[in-house]
Amino acid sequence: MDKSKVYGFSFLAVAILLFFTGISINSYFESQNLFMCTLVEQNPDVSMDECPAHSNSHLLYVATVLAVAFLSLLTSLFFLFYDFEKKEVKTKNEKNRKQPILSEEESKVIELLNREDGSVYQSDVVKHTNYSKVKTTRILDKLEGKNLIERKRRGMTNIVILKK
Question: What architecture (CATH level 2) is domain 104-162?
Answer without folding.
Answer: Orthogonal Bundle (1.10)
